[in-house]
Amino acid sequence: MTQLLDSIHYDQWILHALILLPLAGVVPILLGDERTAKRTALVVTLLELVLSLGLWWAFDPSNGGMQLVSSAPWIPRWGITYRVGIDGISLFMVLLTTVMMPLSVLASWTSITRRERAFYALMLTLLTGLVGVFIALDLFLFYVFFEVMLIPMYFIIGIWGGANRLYAAIKFFIYTMAGSLLMLVAIVVMAWRIGAVTGVLSFSYEHLLANASTLGSAAPWLFAAFALAFAIKVPVFPLHTWLPDAHVEAPTAGSVLLAAIMLKIGTYGFLRFAVPFFPEVALSPEVTRLMVLLAVIGIIYGALVAMVQPDIKKLVAYSSVSHLGFVMLGIWGVSVISVQGALMVMISHGISTGALFLLIGMIYERRHTRLIDDYGGIARVVPLFSLILTVVALSSIGLPGLNGFVGEFLVLLGSFGAYPWATGIATTGVIFAAAYLLWALQRMIFNRLDNPENERLTDLNRRELAVLIPLIIGIVWLGLFPGPVLRRMEPAAQRFVQGTQTHGGSAKLGATVHPQQGSR
Amino acid sequence: MQLDLSTPQGITLGLLPEILLSGWALVVLLVASWRHSTAEDSRLAGWLSLAGIAVSAAGLAWLWVNDATPLGLAQMMALDPFRYAAAALILLSTAGAILLSLGYLERELLLAPEYYPLLLLSATGMMFMAGAEDLIVLFLGLEVMSVAVYVLAGYNRANAWSSEAALKYFLIGAFASGFLLYGIALAYGATGTTNLSLIGAQFAGGQLSLMAELGLGLLLIGFAFKVAAVPFHMWAPDVYDGAPTPVTAFMATGVKIAAFAGLVRVLMEGFPAAASLWQPVIAGLAIASMVVGNLIALAQRTLKRMLAYSSIAHAGYLLVAVWPGTRLGSGAVLLYLAAYSLTTIASFGFLAALGRHGERTVTFDDIAGLAANRPWMALGLSLCMLSLLGFPGTFGFIGKWYIISALIAEGQMILPVVLVVTSVISAGYYLPVIMSMYMKTAPNDELQRDMRLFPSAAGVIALSLVAVLALGIWPREALDAAVKSAGTLTQTGTPVARQ
């Protein structure tokens, strides 16, 4: 496989192709007619998936740095380049994106009936934005992708969403933009300050990372700006209020992409930018205490609120708040194990929650209600659906042997040393997750079949199985054999942890001295 | 190429674009006095005026390409790329206004032919204002510009709102001119000269006398009126709202370009030593304009008034760019003016097409569902809104990015933060436009379907939008040009070094 890839110089063009291919796909969709739009979109997203799979082999698992880096000048006067590359963190985010995208297109096959061309064109634009966010190695470029993907999602929620879609769309947009614009100021400040010290004005990630320690007293403010932007995206309690609205009102494909990928941009941002740039601030005792506290509150609060939701989609939306709390805890655990765990949770949550939203979308298409109480006993009517829902729910709960377990276990294991109390409380989140999901499951598919309307439900068709089976395979495979994935993450996680510690990340060790403070 | 401005030949060449344009305006006036009855005559005057813009632009290009500089100290008029760049923007916005007017005047039956000569004369005044090296020339330019614009604002005589706009603009404008003139008089009293470079040289390093400080203050007030900065903005919404839409576009772009170019030049050449005096004032005006403009725009129901308040907010962003008083800062002013003008011309062009017989009443609800009936129009207007919002991928974003960078290069943090926070507020009224067009259903499909966008207007809108997108993605050359043009103004640390 590696030879094949080498022979076509895969490593030189793949990242550019991943960005450009979906954009190129927009053209035939807009020129074609309404009925062929979805086929074109499916072909383009599948092609993107096939192309991206080569990354698995092209990626060198022993290297913790950036790989497949390439760049081209863009605005030289300001030191802005078009610069892309991947490491063990972004590799999986890119793969997650390219896997979820064709599934989302397939899931929209019959549910999107109005303005199909526009819908699929926006989906492809979104794909470019998502891939771009994860591979951008220039902060200007990152910012552009970070903002640009807002537009397609805004339209997807606002045009094809539920009853309250306008409110949800604008709330989603303004929340994200408010955070990101302050980050924009922080990015410019960083580049100029570092430019003044080093004499090189550049927005390149490596340049900023290498010299971030020269920022001195500005660092807390800059960290705050980055952290706010990403915390809104994650979302960290109490900035999560846009999430239930957006997830519930969005059409199925929108919810899937929001949950599976867009939330991860927040945690990815912490892993890639906020923490590595400012480890002294991020891991100072005060910030650590705050972030761990908010992570734990998110885990418990998300789970408790999920438990009382009458609407299954809202339940899953709140469960995301809970799951993402584990990721935040793992990041602030700053041990190789906890960071790997955080990455695993990011992937598993993407697969499981994506699958949950897909399943909800499928049953909603049949029954046009998302209220748990309207169902009951449908396991007898739609056995296949119920089986898959159960497996996915168990994976989301974190049943050993399925994917959800690996990540959460590693996070708890890796963080326990640093924060025994917080980790202990977080563990109860797993129990709560079992409670709300199993209870919902019981009310939906078990119990008595007392609503005659539910008797007419039809089971999953072939298209829907084609959407779900890859995810089920992922759930089982990641649960049983997480080794290859973890191995590819390890160097990047190690690098992350080392980077924070050489810069005086003392919180974890309990020490009080900051070796770097004031020295530069 | 060096021009000796003390010789008749030198001054003629140095003023070539202005002379060509004002001469051409008189020719158009002459033609119009013979042919002024039919729609065709009006069109003829319009196209003739456009040719005048092209001729003047050719003169300008000749100066710019040959890099004309003054021999010795610049008297009266500057000869530097900053003037050329500002003049080019003014010509561009005038051309845009003419193209928008061609169909509009016919539709609204405003066929009096003086319209186009007035536009050209006003543009001449603007160019003088942007290039004035002397406070008297600045004032003359301002008056030539303003008088013509007063008339244009009230051009729709049958419409009470238009007349109100003209009267209001005239009264407030006279007031502003008064402030400016007092400021000039005091500056002259303090220094004995009205030449900006000489004023700058007198103040260099030293303390300003009370008289000079007062003069500076009054000058600032005069400019603040002209650019509609809060708290001197009260006239703007009514005037923008009442004036015929192409004139509003012209006022929002041309007048702003001229006033900001004049302001930058006065502050940077005449009062660089007093930066500690005017910087807080500019900062205060900027913050007030951004906050008030954006907040009141949020409450507007009609598009035209919303755009009027948003233009106050944009004046605030531009004042932020004036603040640093550096090469980067004045480059940011030029670039943002370009971005804002391109977008504004297109936005008002759409507005003119949307409202038949009264754009004043076009509300957010009237454009509901436009995407289904007029997809291209909806797409274009969305692009305008995103560019005004400063969204990545559009020229408006590059402009804002540049402003933020110019401030941060000077270590100033508060203004950029206010700028981005108020930009978030502005999403609260730009996005509903898009939302209305794409996510709601049309109240009256017929009305939207037979809306007409005149070919000339469609052309200028399309060109502007292509530029907004292209420069948003590939801003390299525009940036270089802006920085280079601004460089001639401010690379002089000490004002006397210009000689």
For this entry, give a set of tags.
heterodimer, A: 520 residues, mainly alpha, 2 domains, two-stranded antiparallel ribbon, 22 helices, 3% strand, globular, B: 499 residues, two-stranded parallel sheet, 21 helices, 1% strand, disordered C terminus
What does this structure look like?
The complex is a heterodimer of chains A (520) and B (499). Chain A is globular, with a radius of gyration of 22 Å. Chain A has two domains: 1-278, no CATH class; 283-508, no CATH class. With 520 residues, chain A is mostly helical. Chain A has a two-stranded antiparallel sheet with strand order 1-2. Chain A has helices spanning 2-7, 10-31, 37-53, 55-58, 90-107, 116-135, 139-148, 150-160, 165-198, 205-211, 219-233, 242-249, 252-277, 279-282, 285-307, 312-332, 336-367, 383-397, 403-416, 420-445, 462-480, 483-502; strands at residues 67-75, 80-86. With 499 residues, chain B is mostly helical. Chain B has one domain. In chain B, helix 5 runs antiparallel to helix 6 (135-153) and helix 8 (196-203) packs across helix 11.
Number of DSSP strand runs of chain B: 2
Number of helices of chain B: 21
| Structural class by SSE content of chain B | mainly alpha
Q: In which range does the helix fraction of chain A lie?
A: over 70%
The tally of domains of chain A stands at 2
Name the beta content range of chain B. Answer: under 5%
Low-confidence stretches of chain B: 490-499
**How much is the radius of gyration of chain A in Å?**
22 Å
Largest sheet of chain A: 2 strands, antiparallel
**Would you tell me the overall average pLDDT of chain B?**
88
Question: Brief overview, please?
Answer:
The complex is a heterodimer of chains A (520) and B (499). Chain A is 72% helix and 3% strand.
